[in-house]
Amino acid sequence: MHIPFDNSYARLPDRFYARLDPTPVAAPMLIRVNTDLAEMLGIDSAALASPEGVAMLAGNAVAPGSQPLAQAYSGHQFGHFSPQLGDGRANLLGEVVGRDGIRRDIQLKGSGPTPFSRRGDGRAALGPVLREYLISEAMFALGIPTTRTLAAVTTGEAVVRETMLPGGVLTRVAASHIRVGTFQYFAAREDAEAVRLLADYAIQRHYPEAASAANPYRAFLDGVVARQADLVAQWLCVGFIHGVMNTDNCSISGETIDYGPCAFMDEYDPGAVFSSIDQQGRYAYGNQPRIALWNLARLAECLIPLLGENEDEAKDALSAFAPRFQAAYFAGLRRKIGLQTEREGDDNLTRDLLKLMAADRADFTLTFRRLGEAAEGDATGVRALFKDGAAFDAWADRWRVRLADEEAPAATIRAVNPMFIPRNHLVEAALAAAVERGDFGPFEELLQVLVRPFADDPALARYAMPPREEERVLQTFCGT
Ligand code: AMP
Ligand code: MG
User: Which of 14, 244, 370, 418 lies 20 to 30 Å (CA to CA) from residue 68?
Assistant: First the structure.
């Protein structure tokens, strides 16, 4: 099993991690290998699927060049600071530089207890493994920065949750696993040297242009602020709710990371919350920009010593978040209604559509997608999603006047508005088939649909439809 490992995090000081091998499992079986991703990473996918490869993916064997370690980090969870979290059930196997020249982490998730496990068993249940596979690959196909999934295996062991569940191990690929919480870990220990080393490492790996700026640490903070603002704008534009935006789940590289009780909205509701553990709605759909900024403020606090103890530098950097987010969000919304140019009044036009959608609980994904047909003259499909048809017609009249100035708006609409998102009821059904019946067919079929979200295939219509009343999923669970 040859993987071209080239590990840089393992060269950072010992206090950044605990070195340890994954804990072997009883009877690993491959669920699937992500062939395209393996190819991009320069890894032979057939070798990954071989018994030797599966042993590595399950944590039963350590491949040559791998230096497994569990990373240290802390984090604010629902606003409360935990000075020590860390990889409680993950092993970073190492890094590879892909065919695109980008260095990425390869990490096993669910690979056994570590010094950071606290009271956890270090394992992952099969359901959440499959959920992360589906949703991370769907996000990638939607063009949203995200960690990805290289492979998933079953362990042949049960994990104890509310009930006994089959176990799984996910192989996650990330630009890195450095989190806001990684900075907090060292800042909380007043380890200024480590904060600086980590910042230098993150700059080199994710923000190389900051290294030559007048103030590299300020440029670094500016870069993280910009990427998080853009990321959350992209989430909102597809109806994604992360569910657990704790600072330990906020990636410095700007990727979506740590798929737990996340969900895509069916009907548009800015207050939508799915996560069973988010009782107060802290991480509701419409709160996500505010929370991202709150998380960035925690990062800025860690960096103040590197900013010459100058709080104004930190504040200035954070003040760029709101305008950057607004610009990205409204640019995204404009494209969603077919506008490639920007005119006065456009923001109101998009805002007014969202208001109608919220009032009538219109399906978020279908509304935008069906604007494509409406732009070509047939508005019956989109109109049917609204209870107040007359209000929609009035909006559509304004929209058509504005569309007259645009080149090929229907094509714009279809290029940015997916037909297929990982709808909760489909995800839950695919997971249930695998977990309860050992049937991975629905998971495979759903994955094949989600990796082509903009396709227009009438044969796949059932994957595009919102849930029937009895299929609705009201809550999602972390399942850790
Ligand atoms: P998460 O909510 O998945 O982002 O995890 C928060 C923290 O809990 C991280 O430090 C995880 O490593 C840890 N954790 C979650 N599940 C487990 C588990 N089953 N065993 C050990 N640690 C866990
Ligand atoms: Mg996490």
Answer: 244
Structure tokens at 234: 């992209």
Which sign, positive or negative, has the C-alpha torsion 227, 228, 229, 235? positive
CA distance to 197, 219, 222, per residue, from 212 (Å): 17, 9, 14
The atom of ligand 1 lying closest to the CA of 86 is 10
Instruction: Tell me the pLDDT band of 309, cut-offs 50, 70 and 90.
Output: confident
> Structure tokens of 389?
């048809």
Give the mean pLDDT of 118-132.
97
Query: Exposed, middle or buried by CB within 10 Å (0-12, 13-18, 19+), for 425?
Result: middle
Global pTM value: 0.98
Catalytic residue among 87, 222, 248, 363: 248
For the chain, the domains span 9-174, 180-330, 331-416
pLDDT at 457: 93
How large is the average pLDDT for residues 401-419? 97
Is residue 312 classed exposed, middle or buried when 0-12, 13-18 and 19+ CB atoms within 10 A define those classes? exposed
Bridge pairing between strands 75-77 and 240-241: unpaired
Distance from residue 73's CA to the centre of ligand 2 (Å): 10
Query: How many A from CA of 329 to the centre of ligand 2?
Result: 26
Residues 6+ apart with CB under 8 A from 308: none
Is residue 131 a contact partner of residue 426, using CB atoms and an 8 Å limit? no
Rounded Cα gap, residues 373 and 376, in angstroms: 5
> Residue 33 forms beta bridges with which residues?
151
Q: Does 248 qualify as catalytic in the annotation?
A: yes
- Which positions ≥6 away from 399 have C-beta within 8 Å? 337, 349, 353
Adjacent-strand bridge partners of 402? none
CA distance 148 to 31: 16
Write the residue with the smallest CA distance to atom 17 of ligand 1.
120
Hunting for tokens 């629902």 — which residue is that? 78
Q: What's the pLDDT tens digit per position in 426-475?
A: 999 999 999 999 999 999 999 999 999 999 999 999 999 999 988 898 88
Give the pLDDT band (50/70/90) at residue 1. Answer: confident
Which protein residue's CA is at the shortest distance from atom 23 of ligand 1?
A: 88
